[in-house]
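Supplementary material to the annual report.
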Amino acid sequence: MTNTNSQNISKIKISQFIRPVISTLIILYLFYRIYTVVFIESSFTPDIWVRFAISGLIIGGMYALIAIGYTLVYGIMFMINFAHGEVMMLGAFGGFFIFELFKGIPTPTAADPNLTLNNSHPYLTIILAFAMGILVSGLAGYFLEKIAYRPLRKAPRLILLITAIGASIFLQNLAMLMFGPQRKNVVNPEILNRSNGWEFLVSGKSVFLTYTGVFSLILSAVLMILLYLLVQHTKLGRSMRAVAQDQNTAALMGVDVDDVISKTFVISGILAGAAGVMWDIHMGLVNHYTGFLPGIKAFTAAVMGGIGNIPGAMFGGIFLGLIESLGPASLGIDFQLKDVIAFSILVLVLIIRPSGIFGEKLSEEKL
Amino acid sequence: MKNPTLKNGLTAGVIFGILTTVMFLIGFNEVAAKLISKVFSDQNFTKFPQYYYFGIFMVLLGIWNGNIAAKAEFKRKNDLLSSLIASIIGGLIAGLFGLILSLIFGSLVEQQIDVRKYLVSVSPESIKLFLFEKSALTGGLIELGLSIISALAGGLLFYLFNAVNGVNKAKQSLFKNYQSLISSPKTKELLSDPIFKIAMYLLIAVALIVIPRNWGSYWNYVFGTVGIYVLLGIGLNMITGWAGQLVIGYSFFFAIGAYTFAIFTSPEPHNLMWNFWIALGLGVLAAGLSGLLLGLPILNLRGDYLAIVTLGLGEIIRILLKSDLLTDFTGGPRGLQKIAGPTLFGKPFNSDVDFMYLIIVAVLVVSFLAHRLQNSRTGKAWYAINLDETVAKATGVNSFWSKLLALTLSAAIAGLAGAIFASRNQYTGPDDHTLMVSINVICLIIVGGIGNIPGIFLGAFVLKGVPEILREIDNYRMLVFGVLLIVMMRIRPEGFLPLQRPKLEKFVKPVNPEGGAQ
Amino acid sequence: MKNCIQVNQVSKYFGGLTAVNKVDLEVSEGSITSIIGPNGAGKTTLFNCISGYYKPEVGQILFFSEPIHGLPTYEVAKMGISRTYQNIRLFSQMTAIENIMLGQHTRLTNIWIDSILGTPRHNREYKRSIEEAKRLLKFVGLQGLGDTQAKNLPYGAQRRLEIARALGNKPKLLLLDEPTAGMNPQETTKMTSFIRSLRDDLGITIILIEHDMRVVMDISDQIAVLDYGEKIAEGLPKDIQSNQRVIEAYLGPDVSLLTKKYQERKRLRHAVTN
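Predicted assembly:
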């Protein structure tokens, strides 16, 4: 009897070591590989690295906005809103239609007989595109919560997840059936032409920073700051944090829980919509599938940062964007496998450290 | 002014108005007309013009609208008049949606503007159909009128079937008769009579042998696919339905089975032309092994995290298979071709009929396996983990190894399905192993009945067989899945055929001969 | 008389909170021990340490001189310790018999291959476990309800089913967490004698957490009192009953004043009437 028990106790100790050991090994290997590729083989010059980094930051900003959406919803309802990527996609379509509409309204002048509304009033166009994108996504978030999730508020998490998957499939296919499977080109107003930008030199070679890129970066940052202020300093933000910590107590304190949850979905929709229109502007292509990959990657980012943790989601998004951009080059693998990097990070983070970098350990159930 | 009658009617009306709009925008008009015309065997619209059938469809929708409005109102206030008012309001609102759509798109058609640049499915024909081949205004008014009238009819029908005493009683007694027939002692006696059982089994066996030979290769293909999905369903059911661990990336194991089989029997890339049965076995083993290895790090994760990890893994393998990185090993985006078919005692066994037999045997074997496991000590341990893992552990179940066993077996079954699938198509490639395959299987077991083997048959048939039979709606298949998932989770999360627990106290006779039958 | 359970200086911390603080406990084989104390005193936490759900940071727990602290719950169950829960935790969708059969999990040996192949071992164990389960159903007074889903059973029946499930494990030690919670006086009396019969007829050592003092005083061989995670008293029922510190733990520190006042009044009244 004694032998079995001490065997069991030592068996348990071994399995506790495996995880940290393997994670350390993986990290060491990655560092080694990066060192080799970057410094020894030096297939890329510094200017190219800068280019990758900038592109990574820009996309990272968009991921961050979407990731915040995931984290807000998870924090308040403990569900993974699998359809959040589709919410972003709908916002992207909203912005796209404004661009298309304005592109089709002629406003000829003497100087330019072919002028259209999107170029004669570019700022108006852009503002309205964002407004539309935000409106569509916000509404999408609102109705998603009201119709699909609210009735299942008390249901086990897996049922909610399956419902969310159903909603995601539904929205994706709805968009495909309505708008067709081909990716559509988004034509930006001239001031945001994708080929215009600033040039600067890095170790002798020129690096290009597009206007659209700068625009996206600044807008992402502004939105993130605004959101942070909202959560920390407004009554709504306080209510959101209260409901996230303890729904019942918040309700007893007079917080309208349904309303707060609804507003949370709307806010996460707004951020996703903004990200969607940014995606339109920067990437120039949109279709029903546009939201799927960014959605999953943003979710990865949210988990990496610690799901439920807003600064964590921001950090995770930017970090993921950078890794995705710099990763294939620095590990010496094919760019096709860019998405594999994101998914691999997802898998590894969930296995090795599910609470994320900044997250708290989840509380145990009461026995 | 929150008049509840108004509200009920408004809600129903808005729902159906949106439904009509969505159907219009996704081009369902023509499909609906076609489906209805099929019922009247007039697919070429010779007896009646297309818009007649479309009209019938809109009328059916309107009746449903009125029905729902009336039901909601009747529940609140047991009154015929207010229910009918609610129905009419519902019809009015939905009809207004129709009117607006007609006016907008009708005028666009009249100005020869084709919206298909943006709304791909809204063709001029589709719009004209919606307008009943009339002008924008006339068509719109017809829509409005039809909506109101059919909603009223729906309300009346509801009242007739639920409130009018005679009809209601007749309905209830019919139901009672049906119930008593099913549970009567005579029926039970018949069902447990051994001779009856043997006769049924013989009948089924004969059917399984004779039918595949005679109904043509199309049906063998369709039902063969259903069979493969039954296999997948039983496999996923073990880990998700019984043990309660949601696995989204199930296609991962399907892919491993298919590719392992393919690699060992295809002339490229490695030119291994091994025996079909050995390659099949290897496929199963490889998949099972991958389940075992994968399970070790991930089965400790919490439910939704586990699900997402499996999703990630499924996507990783799909991307890797599609990339050029592994082309030398796995054929890259083009996949592997010319996979050999099975041979039985040396003779080729690869006609469609033979494959059907193969699939039938596989399904029978795996169902038997699952059935044996379902109420065994192992199976109960799985279900206990599903219901309450902490307490299951406290009761003595080593939940980690138990879950690992479930995952390994699930994976092996997926591997079997994958190998058969690859063999039948004589091809496998990365596009055979998308997320959609995994989601198909999840939908299947959810709709059929989580955990329940007959439910899986039902689910596979509904999800794979019906779209084949109703080819017209194939485009809309995924859309319907999405809606189905949402709706099922809301109204019947345990599926159409919920899992039944075994009756052990009454029906298991004691070993002790003195006790006798209980 | 062997010591069934020996708890040595066990402490359990949750972040900054000390739930159990250097608790010692000795439970001799075949005895009925009650652990009492105000809510939040750490009683269930102590149970959780014994059953293996928690690993105590400090201290040892010995089961018939075998260390069990830190073992996972299924190992502990296998060694012969079963428990019930404060909020009943049955397998709600399973039938009553199935719940008991789960309890027997550690005492059966057939594995998945046996089940698939239908080996004699599987068949034999299956039949035996159903019979045994029926016997246990009868023992707890639930015969005839075996095929009802656990969630559909009335409250008292659910409590008894939980105990039947625990008994399926053929335990040497039974941990009962508030077995009479929510019961009326008749049910409580029945449960109390039932618990006693578990010890008398089956020789099982029992540790209870209880709030109902009549039960505690009635059946306990010894009582341990916890307050704020510490053991503040231990001993025979009559000693605990009059232990000032225990009374204060339940009623508050001013109770000694109340007691004095009450006794003064009693004396005065006595003096007046005489």
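The interface with chain C takes residues 369, 372-373, 376-381, 383-384, 387-388, 390-399, 405, 409, 499, 501-506, 508, 510-512 of chain B (CB under 8 Å).
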